[in-house]
Amino acid sequence: MQPTTVCKVAKTVSCHCWNADRTQIAIATRNSNDIFIYENCCSSRFEEWKLLHTLSGHDLPVTGLDWDPIHNRILSCSEDCNAYVWNYENGKWLPTLVVLKIQRAALCCKWSPDGNAFAVGSSDRKLRICTFNADQNLWVSPHGVRVKQERDEDGEAADSSTSSKTRGSIFCVCWDRTGQLLCRGSLDGSMSVVSTYYNPSLPIRDCPFDIASKDLFGFVFGDTCGVVESIAFSPNNTTIAYSDRNSDVHFLDFTIHCPSLPFTHIAFLSNTVLLAGGFDGNLYVLNKQNGKWEYRGTVDVSAGTSSGLSSSFQERIRMLQSTTNKGGVKTTGNRDSAKGSVGPHKNAITGIQVMEENKKVSTCGLDGRIVIWNMEAILKRMGL
Questions:
Q1: Where residue 251 sits, what CATH number does that domain have?
Q2: Of 74, 152, 160, 352, which shows the fewest CB atoms inside 10 Å?
Q3: Per-residue pLDDT tens digits for 223-260
Q4: How many CB atoms lie within 10 A of CB 59?
């Protein structure tokens, strides 16, 4: 199998998601308000893709997509301040309105692992955690019933669906594998953790850090970093990683500075491999060895490259030799060597989806391409 499968599907692609068995893909573009669902989408020839459905309902471009693999439902949010849950019934996708009560664009959305709730972040500085109300046939934000409330600085209980601590737009959200914790990243440079577990009498299981003893949920990490672009939990639920516009990747208390443009999306391929993509259109690999995360370079699948890494990787290795104990890289020159794309994307990467753990991921970008990466072969070439 080839290292990558590249397909030009649109002028730009803002986000994408896959169904449970990875046979269908949902795509949103910057120049349309609709959502397009295709099958036969692993072919590099777009004319071989089959358009199954076009979902129309949003009035402005779609900013987030997520496909619930358990109940086969699609979640979408948009700049029109709305979100919809799309249910497949009698051969058609039917929308159900979500009551968000926000005045500005919805920026990101994510299903909980059990598919019974989802989170939506907005430029209104509000985080909405929604569940289904069967009586009203609507998805709504509960108030103090199923979500443990945060507390504000005065100790008063706050709206369970609204962040009183975030001072900027919420750019990204991510659930842990148990659905008990939710991370959010913000324009104000903070990454915070919110408790969303349904039964407060039960202890938090598999928590990646000692938060069980803290009464203050909504605990903020790294509030002095740059704009938080993406957050990811490792598959074993022991590590939280997030990237910012300072080109840093944070693993809670540990930070790696990367010689590249900032990363807009990150995803764990496994417990020891983190993938990152961003403004320069390249896919980067960070690897955990001997208990320490390290920057391993750019994935380069161009012809004539046998190592699987970019030609500037050796230079970056020399830069890493000056790494501080905080994981930062002391750069003495400019970053021009990292600005050009050496991979199949020719513009910024706007999404990363893990298709198969340890084996495959897909990316979408502003160049309108969907790229499927055979990471099993690529990592083997990289010696990982």
A1: 2.130.10.10
A2: 152
A3: 557 789 999 999 888 888 999 998 999 887 667 888 88
A4: 11
In the DSSP assignment, the letter for residue 98 is E
Pairwise CA distance, residues 41 & 48, whole Å: 8
- Flag whether 213 is in a domain: no
The tokens describing 333, both together, are: 């020159």
Lay out the sheet containing 181-186: strands in order across.
Answer: 170-175, 181-186, 191-195, 219-221
Q: Are residues 27 and 114 in the same domain?
A: yes
Q: Which residues contact 251 (CB under 8 A, 6 or more apart)?
A: 239, 240, 241, 293
Residue length of the chain: 384
Domain that holds residue 305: 225-384
CA-based angle 198:209:214, to the nearest 5? Answer: 65
Q: What's the confidence (pLDDT) of residue 149?
A: 39
Is residue 220 one of the residues assigned to a domain?
no
Of the two residues 239 and 301, the one the predictor is more confident about is: 239
Q: Are 41 and 24 in contact (CB under 8 A)?
A: yes
- CA distances for 308 relative to 59, 63, 325, angstroms: 42, 32, 28
Q: Which residues contact 321 (CB under 8 A, 6 or more apart)?
A: none
* 200 neighbors 231 (Cβ within 8 angstroms): no
Pairing label, strands 254-257, 248-251: antiparallel
Tell me the per-residue pLDDT of 73-120, one tens digit each, with 9 for 90 and over: 999 999 999 999 999 999 999 999 898 989 999 999 999 999 999 999
Q: Which of 267, 301, 273 is nearest to 5 (CA)?
A: 301
Structure tokens at 111: 């299903």
In contact, 220 and 228? CB cutoff 8 Å: no
**Cα–Cα distance, 203 to 174 (Å, whole number):** 20
Mapped onto helix, strand or coil, the DSSP state of residue 144 is coil
Q: How many domains does the chain have?
A: 2
Could you tell me the two tokens for 304? 């004539």
Span of 81-90, 131-140, 348-357 with lowest mean pLDDT: 131-140
How remote is the C-alpha of 175 from its chain's centroid? 10
Residue 209 domain flag: no
